[in-house]
Every structure is written in structure tokens, then in C-alpha cells.
């Protein structure tokens, strides 16, 4: 099976060298020999010896090359990548890609074109790098009805929250973000990661393969971590929780929730142990129960590992449907206002008699019960109240928060973080 | 694809009902329809409505039935199971089995017969129940050279050690074993689980698919947990470790270590968080780095989940080699005396001047350094010394322990527990 790589950046160079280093190990695992025959890249990579491979500066050469059976798309972005992939499919080539945005935003079109041509599109590397989570859900748990998926699938946000959570750290989001940028864990413009868009792309794909539903990025509720304060981290810790940036996809009959947001997780949960830039995905399914998959979510070699697994899969001629299902059910995507959750609330109040009674009365009027409450004495002017609530529908909480914010003695907006239910 | 199940015990009945419950979900995931056509069982199961399926009391009927494409072996044991599977293979049937002993002890013969007939043998359920670890190693990490596998793959031992480790528990092995038996987590004769044989069967298979080597149960060093005391648990905790029953397979060139034994694991490691009857396998590989897989290791439904995944895989006609590799390398299995490890040592000594000097001199003479040391005052007669050593070759440690035990003032044998190196 003849492979052409498009893009020789971080992942592309990692893949190129993995081909060289693990040549004999890969030969032992495939009946059909896997050969790297062409590389399409704008410039050579200093880590790669390209002397024995056909190099082209026009990546579309690879899409049209009759000597290539599988095109590996590692150029990133969505516009050119989509054109490239569709061109390769039209020439009957299988596709392997690490491009989550391409799949999340244009996957329905790409898979339809692939199905029409009878070729496969593989995308293990698009979610959680070195963790074979697509294979686990699409194949390893194929006998199950999958009920929910909860994933920490963005290393940047996990690194920042982990640093903010270190004992005695007391560091602000902005301070740690700068460190993450210095270490290369965050981009110069970090919006894509810290506002949750990258995680939302990945969760879009996870939800499709878990539930057998069309890719629908638009149905996702997306919230980042830039508003999390060191106070939030400390209050959560006092209550026995850590704060993680979690993607949650959940199915109940035809109803599907898709949401990415900061989440309180009880500190004795497995997901609460996942720190730094590491990723983990927990899958709740009807027969296997909860299983978890943990590993490096990014980086040249972990991502190349996933790309190579897809290439080997292609050589092994597995006939798994691209998104795991032959036909899709049409789900009812729930708006965030319809989900149920427990909530962490933080608000500042004037340090006066009767304020606590006002706050608790508002909650009680909206049928929100209090599971735990912390009040910190006013050191400067205002006191802080932190409340952990029972599980209520989000629209009910919206109404309660709105009324709390209108109280005369409440001096801040109400910070709200959802609590994990597993 | 027509399926026949042999054995309708815990797993068989779980699988039978999973077929019924997830019928439509499975149809959505397979192009070729999967039909359950025959059940071979000595007696009916109260949870299963067998009215619409062909039932036989002779399981060999299933192996010979021309209407069956895949035989699912769930009878357990090795003798009849092996005859059954070989008979089915001789009739050109694919095999799915949950039987770790069969694969670990007779796998080489079974796979050779299957290869000769051009059929597949799948065994996802034989290791770690609901966790798709065979698929992860054989396919998800196929682009990697796998360097080591470390697994907590026996729920009974993990449950017992977890209970013994609970804050202030101070419970003995025998006491917790009895509770495990009452809860159904341990057999009336618990030898198979608590002495590590079950874990050794599973690790034999893991090592084969990770390294591409023949199945060799005989090469395994196997040690159980029955000698672990509550003192060991407490001393380990004081040093920042928990004690887990771990299977370790490690490759270095042609050298392969296979060992199952109690192991100290630093308490901030992911594997240290795996408690109760849960299982987890961590895999160290050259590109993906360390990835971990966590879930329920036993039980009707998790095991049925794995069996069903294999059945669906068969219907999807994947062409993955049975053990992941087309050809095997011939490894050099290292005896336990050749491995390198840090060690936890515990010994009782007379409470006299100079004893500590004697002990440390013996270690020093054998070039064993001390990383940490605890001495507990004698309350009754003898003092306890606990030592954490640097990494040395086991034969060196054997010699040191032998000399320690010959010291006049050392009043106990030396308890030794290996320490995880990751």
C-alpha cells in the first residue's frame, strides 16, 4: 500500500521519521507492505532525510498521483485541506487525517464523497493524539449503546487549570497562560484552545461515533476557561473538587447534549487525576460500564502514532464504517438551557445582616437546594459566598441567577460552574 | 454472519441478553447482519428466553453445525474448551473466546490451526473484561514499538489490597479475603486469583501481542499477594506508595521480562488511583508514550461487551493478524533473578545497639544503596526496619537478603516487594 504525506510540519515530520524508525516493526504487522512513496510540502524539514522519497511542492500532485493509494492530510486548516481531501477521494484514494476542524466542520460532506467512491477516511489522530479513542469507541465498544462521553481533550486548558490548582499557587489565568505560551503549550493567539473551540471540534466527532448521529458542530455549547479565577479553584478544593475543562456528550433517547465548559469534578474521580497537558476520555456505555482512556493528547510522536495506526488499518483492509455506523439517527440536540446539572455558584455580597437570608430565599423560590455553602469574611469590603447546589435544569438556574444579580446587596455577577454528574 | 454460543453461564447469559437488548444498535454498526442461531449449554439460564433459538445440550453440535459461522467459546477450562475450539476451526468457523487460560496455555496450537484453516480467533474478553485493551495494543498502537506493559488485571487482588489500604483499616489479608468471598469477588478456592495465576495468564497474552513473541506462560515469574501484611501497607503509605498487584512485561532488544507480583507504586501515579475490583493497563510505547486503559475487568456485562466487539469485528471482516503480528521474533525470556528493580524490604530485628549498623553494612557490601528507611520502636520484643533501596539486579538483592537473614540479630525473614519504575 503506497502512502503519500501532505504537510511536513510537526506531525508530518514525526510521521516521516516513525516510518523510518519502525519500518521492520510495521512490516511484521501488515500482510500488505506499507510504502511511503511521496511527500508534498512547501519546504523540507530539518529533521527529515527526504533523499530517497519523491518530494513535490504542490500537495495536489499527491492527490492526483496514480502511485498513491492513501493520502495523509497533515496541512491543517479547513479550506485547502478540504479541497485536497475531496480531490484525493475523487481519484479513489483512501484518506488519513489529523485534522479535527476539517472533520467536525466538513465531515458530513467528506464522508459522503468517500462513501460514493468506496474509499475510507480515517481520523484517529484528530482526537486526543496518542490515545486510540476513535478505535475504542467505534470498534472496542461496538457492542454497547454508548450513553455519555466525558473528555479532557485539550492539553492547553488542562495545563493552565493544573498549574492554577497547585497547592499554594494562587496564580491567575493570565499569569499561567503566559507561561503556557513560553513553554509552547499555547499559541500566541490562544483563543482557539482556551475558549474551548478546539475541544468542541473533537467532541463533535466523539459524539457522532458514540451515538451514530451526524456531525453537528453548531449544536455544541462552548465555554472556555478564561473567566476561572484562583478563588474558584480554591473554593472548589475546599468543597472536595477540582476544576477541569470537560467536553460532555450525553444521549437520552433521541435527546443529545453537546457541551464543553469548565466543570467541577470530585477529587477522588479518575478524571480528576489527569494533570498537565495529558488528555483522557471516559466513556459510559450500557454493557462495559465506564471505561477510561488516558495519554498524551498532542505532540509530534503521539499524533504520528495515531496516524500510523490508521495507515496500518488501511493496509489491513478493515471494513469499519467511517463513523462507526452505517446509518445515522436524527437526534434532538438539546440547548444548554435544557440540561440538568448541579452548580457551583460564587458571588460577592455586602457584609450586612440579612444578606444570606435574601440569597437563600431566592434559591429556594426557584426550587434550588443548597448542598454546601462557604462564606468568607469580608477582608476589604464585600464577602464572598460559594454555593454548591442540587441538580436542576439550567433554565431554572438561569432564572435564579438573574434574580440573585438583581438583589441590592449582591455586588458582583454570579460565577457559575457546572458539576460533573459521574 | 451466524453466531453460535457455547456456554450459558455468567458471561454467556450476559452475551445472550446483550444480543437481544442492543439488536438495533448492532445492526446499525454492521453491514453484514449478525444473527444468533444456536446456543450450546448443559442447562437453560433463568435470565435468558431461549424460545426462539436453536438450543443443544451438546456443545460439539455447535462446532459441527454448518449454519454457524462464528463459534463463541464461553465454557471456560482448558481441556474441553481446546477440543471444542479445534473442532470448530476444523469446520472452518471463526472463534471468539473469553478464555485466558486456553489462549495463554494452548494459544500457539490454536492459532496455528486457525491460520492453517484461514479463520480468525478473537479473545478481547480474555483480558480486563470491558476494556478493549487487545484492540488498543494490536491496532490502536500498531505504529509503535511497545516497550512495556504494566497491568492491574485481576479484580480480586485489587479489591483485597484496596480494602487493606483504606485509612485506618489495619485489616489482614485473610480477613479481607473472607469479605471478598462473601461478596462474590473471590472464589471458594481463591488460589487462582490471589496467587497471581489468573493475572499471569492475561499478561502472557498481553506480552505476545505487544512484542510479537510466542505465548509462553512458562517464562512468567508469578507471585501472589497472600504474604502482604497490613504493616507492609502502612509502611508503604508512610513512604508515599501504595501496594498493587501488578503484571509487568518489558522488552529491551531481545530480552523480555514477564512478571506478576505485588508492587509499590508512587501514590501520585495514575495506576495508584485504580481501586476496588477495577482493572487498568498502562502501555509504554516509543511514539505514543504512556497510555492507560481503565475499566471493569470482570462481570457478565463488561465481558459480554468485549465478546460482542469481537463478533462485530468478525462481521466487519477485519484482517488483523490474530496476535497482531505476521511473524514472531524469538525472545530471550529473562529469569526473575536478572531483572532490575528498586525494592521495599521489611525485617524484624532485636532492639540492640549496633543492629542497624550490621544491616546497613550488609547492604553496602552488596552495593545496595538506601533511598529511605523507617525504624519502628519495639513495642513487644523486636523492632521493625523498612528500607527502600536504589535499583539493583535481583540476584544481587537475593544475595543481600540471604546474608541479612543469616545475621544473628535479624529475627524474621526479609519481606521483599518490588517498586514500579515508571
Per DSSP E runs of 2 or more residues, the count of β-strands of chain A stands at 18
* Share of residues in strands of chain A: 25-35%
Helix content of chain A: 25-40%
Low-pLDDT parts of chain A are none
How would you characterize the largest beta sheet of chain A? Answer: 12 strands, mixed
Whole-angstrom Rg of chain A: 24 Å
- What is the count of structural domains of chain A? 3
CATH class of the largest domain in chain A: Alpha Beta
Q: Judging from the principal axes of the Cα atoms, what is the shape of chain A? A: elongated
What is the CATH-assigned architecture of the largest domain in chain A? 2-Layer Sandwich
CATH homologous superfamily (4th level) name of the largest domain in chain A: Dihydrodipicolinate Reductase, domain 2
Mean pLDDT of chain A: 94
- Assembly annotation: homodimer
Distance between the termini of chain A: 44 Å
Description of the structure:
The structure is a homodimer of 422-residue chains. Chain A is of the alpha/beta class. Chain A folds into 3 domains: 2-126, NAD(P)-binding Rossmann-like Domain (Rossmann fold, 3-Layer(aba) Sandwich); 133-296, Dihydrodipicolinate Reductase, domain 2, CATH 3.30.360.10; 339-419, 2-Layer Sandwich (Alpha-Beta Plaits), CATH 3.30.70. Chain A has 14 helices and 18 strands. Chain A has helices at 10-21, 23-29, 59-64, 79-90, 100-117, 133-140, 155-165, 173-182, 191-194, 197-211, 230-238, 300-315, 355-365, 394-406, and strands at 2-6, 35-40, 54-56, 70-73, 94-97, 121-122, 146-152, 221-222, 241-252, 255-266, 278-285, 289-296, 332-333, 340-350, 370-376, 382-389, 392-393, 415-419. In chain A, strand 5, helix 5 (100-117) and strand 6 form a beta-alpha-beta unit. In chain A, helix 5 (100-117) packs parallel to helix 10. Chain A starts with a strand and ends with a strand. The model of chain A has no long low-confidence stretch (mean pLDDT 94). At the A-B interface, helix 1, helix 2, helix 6, strand 12 and helix 12 of A face helix 1, helix 2, helix 6, strand 12 and helix 12 of B.
